[in-house]
Amino acid sequence: MPVRPPSLRSIAAFEAAARHASFTKAAEELNLTTGAISHAIKALEHRLDQQLFDRGGRTIALTPAGQRLAARVRLSLGLLADAFDTAAARGRDRLIISTISSVAHKLLLPALADLQQAVPGTVLDIRSSSALADLERDADLAIRFGPGRWRGLQARHLCDELLFPVASPSYRNGQLPAVLDDLGACRLIHHPESNWRLWLDPSELDLLGSSDAIHIDDSMLAVEAAAAGHGIALARGRVAEADLRSGRLIRLFDRSVPAEYNYWAVWSGASPKQQPIAAFVEAVTPLFMSHEKRSSGD
């Protein structure tokens, strides 16, 4: 059976007394009597069977036990404040965008100034998560790599995606695979949504069994692992694009295949923020479309 927490009044009395190092100032802040503050703290001490304050005349100081409790109480109050602030923020001029780390890092952040100009007077709140966003409570707009079938939601297709192998130019001291059979001697980096079975022909699947492997569940981290020289990744072209331009990564082989999923913008048609959502989607769409046009030439 869960233990019932002390009253919020007792917790507030303790936190204020700890912050002010004074029962009198805590009483003034909470509009209580000094006796009420003292009584509330004594009740906490009795419950915990620990002394929370050293009392010396008109001065008080937290004991070690009191310091530990004060730190936990402040953390808990901070979490409560964040929870109510988030709820309030959704009613103000704030657009909460939930997206995956690869899109946030490789696409949104480099274009942040332009995206902000598209929604003047609106605070952009970008949150990175691979979990499905609750578009009624947690976010106003999601940008996802997925199948594009979200019941009850509005969605815009941003672009298709292609998969192809990439590696650091320094991988294996620059001895990169020249033919497919060379992959059998390389370490392949696997990601669940960028499966090597999509890129290899059925007759080439034996290369998977003979290779050293790393499994990474984040597409950007998989590309970063390849750029760091840890192996060969089957990368999403959009995620790897900037690193290919800079030379951090080299594309291997000419073959590319469509990914199982595509990039989408998703939002609730019932959201009261339709205008900033539409403006943001219009601003972000060309970033994907420009990539799609370049990729179509492969």
CATH topology of the largest domain: D-Maltodextrin-Binding Protein, domain 2
Q: Terminal Cα separation, in Å?
A: 62 Å
Sheet with the most strands, sense and barrel status: 6 strands, mixed
Can you name the CATH architecture of the largest domain?
A: 3-Layer(aba) Sandwich
CATH top level of the largest domain is Alpha Beta
Total number of helices: 11
Measured as a percent range, the helix fraction is 40-55%
CATH superfamily of the largest domain: Periplasmic binding protein-like II
Number of strands: 13
Q: Beta-strand level of the residues, as a percent range?
A: 15-25%
- Radius of gyration from CA coordinates: 28 Å
Low-pLDDT residue spans: 291-298
What is the overall pLDDT average?
86
